[in-house]
Amino acid sequence: MEHPKTTALDLPLPDPLPEEVSELFEKCQEKLGLVPNVLVAYAFNPAKLAAFGQMYNDLMLGPSNLSKLEREMIAVVISAQNSCWYCQVAHGAAVRVLSDKPELGEALVMNYRMADLTPRERAILDFSLKMTLSSGAIEEADRQHLRNAGLSDPDIWDVAAIASFFNMSNRLASAVGMVPNPDYHNQGR
Predict the structure, then answer these.
(1) Model confidence over 149-189: pLDDT tens digits?
(2) What is the spatial distance between Cα 29 and Cα 7, in angstroms, rounded to a whole number?
(3) Secondary structure of 3-59 in HEC code, one letter for each residue
């Protein structure tokens, strides 16, 4: 399987790909119709790919009272603040698909405060952004605001974990020049 250049770094892929990596890529191709470039970028080191995949799958797909859409919305708002091209494109596409509202994905990238959001969504995104800009300034009142919007303490943990993960992955994606899959640009439009 031929893989496109996914980063500005020249990281050699194992040849042949280890069986677990090959199986993951085949599963992605089957389910998504593409292999996300972030996975191809990590494939130079199968242990790093596995660690990334495990954390991503737990946070974004695992059990949570946060909906998949809410999780993707956090990813987009954090990625917009961090100017992460890869994640804005990839997760903006997910927001468009999950919400069936192309304008929502675009508003979250440009200025989420202009989006038509529920009070719960706005509280989640405000907290996520504050974590990104000044995590040391978060106080009990910030967590209480989330509780008042209907989130439990485990939900607040999930919001914080997702925001933290995307702050890390945005910085890595930007640092290595990660390129989003072209297919994402047309999804949900």
Answers:
(1) 999 999 999 999 999 999 999 999 999 999 999 999 999 98
(2) 20
(3) CCCCCCCCCCCCCCCCHHHHHHHHHHHHHHCCCCHHHHHHCCCHHHHHHHHHHHHHH
Q: Where are the domains of the chain?
A: 19-61, 68-186
Helices (H) and strands (E) in the chain, counts: 9, 0
- Look up residue 161 and give its two tokens: 């974990």
Instruction: Report the half-sphere exposure of 38 (CA within 13 A, side-chain side).
Output: 22
Residue type, 65: N
State the average pLDDT for the chain.
94
CA 44 to mean position of chain CA atoms: 21
The one-letter amino acid code at 71 reads R
CATH number for the domain formed by residue range(s) 68-186? 1.20.1290.10
Of 144, 101, 146, 98, the residue nearest 121 (C-alpha) = 146
User: 37 near 180, Cβ under 8 Å?
Assistant: yes
CATH code of the domain occupying 19-61: 1.20.5.810
Give which of 151, 153, 161 is closest to 58, Cα–Cα.
161
In the three-class reduction of DSSP (H, G, I as helix; E, B as strand; rest coil), residue 159 is classed as: helix
